[in-house]
TrEMBL record:
Family: Belongs to the metallo-dependent hydrolases superfamily. Phosphotriesterase family.
A family per Pfam: PTE
GO MF term set: hydrolase activity; zinc ion binding
Cofactor binding notes: Binds 2 divalent metal cations per subunit.
Signal peptide: none
Presence of the UniProt keyword Hydrolase in the record: yes
Designated name of the protein: Phosphotriesterase
Binding site residues for Zn(2+) 1: H22, H24, K132, D251
Length: 303
């Protein structure tokens, strides 16, 4: 039976509730100096604000080695009543120091992902609920191919979903060719993040036709067409028959983007984006995107 693996244990997908399907409570990267998400009290306040806006679950896409603070997630979930799903996986090489990358290049990357999914993240007891990897700008470099190959191996061992950061929304079809074509991952086990940042309707339809999930994420910060063109893109995909392949997320990646630090943050997804999309495609579909779809996308028959 399929279950969503939260930091407090596995639950039936229908219990996930209103879900921000792509966001971050904690994140650290040399690409974002001085903008780290590291404040525990701010994370708690942000989750409380999301809960007050009607939210029930957040999927944190922060992968291995980027300050995801897995040990703090269970207590945050208990304190706020928000269900949390934690990632394993690896981001682009630019987000890591060379020593860590050299160690990971020594092998065992797939084994690391499987271990964090099944046995738990070292010293925390928290099991990851999915794998996060990343493509490059219009290309798949050697690091991307290595991490995606490891992610596919971990998928085949566990059934886990693979969520992909698309750099500025590009490279979607190359990612699908690799993951679903060469590496044999079923389309419905792949989530493409940030596809709305490169709003090519032809690519979006082609990607959706693979059976993958399209995550419209990033409204918490101004970035290309993430906000103002989102309703028309969602409507076009729904009219093309892909209404059941859509997810929504906030992708709060820097401290200033949190609502409690003066940004839009997680509540914006429910306070503004939800209603704007409802005007374009109807409240019923938006409710399914926020509740039913994340449960289906992240639920796994764990092996």
């Amino acid at each position: 039976m399929s279950r969503v693996r939260t930091v407090l244990g596995d639950i039936p997908p229908e219990q996930l509730g209103v879900c921000d399907a792509h966001d971050h409570l904690f994140l650290r990267s040399p690409q974002l100096p001085g903008q780290e998400l590291e404040d525990l009290s701010a994370a708690r306040a942000e989750l409380a604000a999301f809960r007050a806006a009607g939210g029930a679950a957040v999927v944190q896409w922060t992968p291995y080695g980027m300050g995801r603070r897995a040990a703090d997630l269970p207590e945050l979930s208990r304190a706020t009543g928000v269900r949390l799903v934690c990632a394993t996986g690896l981001h682009q090489a630019a987000h890591y120091d060379t020593q860590l990358l050299d160690r990971l290049r020594g092998g065992g990357l797939a084994e690391l992902f499987v271990s964090e999914l099944t046995e738990g993240i070292a010293t925390t007891g928290v099991r990851a609920g999915f794998i996060k990897v990343a493509g490059g700008f219009h290309a798949l470099d050697a690091h991307t191919r290595r991490t995606m190959t490891a992610a596919a191996e971990a998928h085949h061992a566990t059934g886990s979903t693979i969520a992909v950061h698309l750099e500025l929304g590009t490279g979607a079809l190359d990612v699908l060719d690799l993951l679903c074509g060469e590496l044999g991952v079923p389309g419905d086990r792949v989530i493409l993040g940030h596809l709305n940042r490169h709003p090519d309707p032809v690519v979006q339809r082609q990607a959706a036709a693979s059976g993958c999930w399209l995550a419209f994420d990033g409204p918490s910060r101004a970035h290309n067409a993430t906000d103002w063109r989102m309703p028309e893109a969602v409507r076009a995909l729904a009219e093309a028959g892909f209404a059941d392949r859509l997810l929504l997320g906030g992708d709060t990646v820097v401290a200033g983007a949190r609502s409690v630090d003066g940004g839009l943050g997680m509540p914006y997804l429910l306070r503004r984006v939800r209603h704007r999309l409802a005007a374009a495609v109807g409240a019923d579909l938006v409710d399914r995107i926020l509740t039913e779809h994340p449960g289906r996308a992240f639920a796994v028959d764990w092996r």
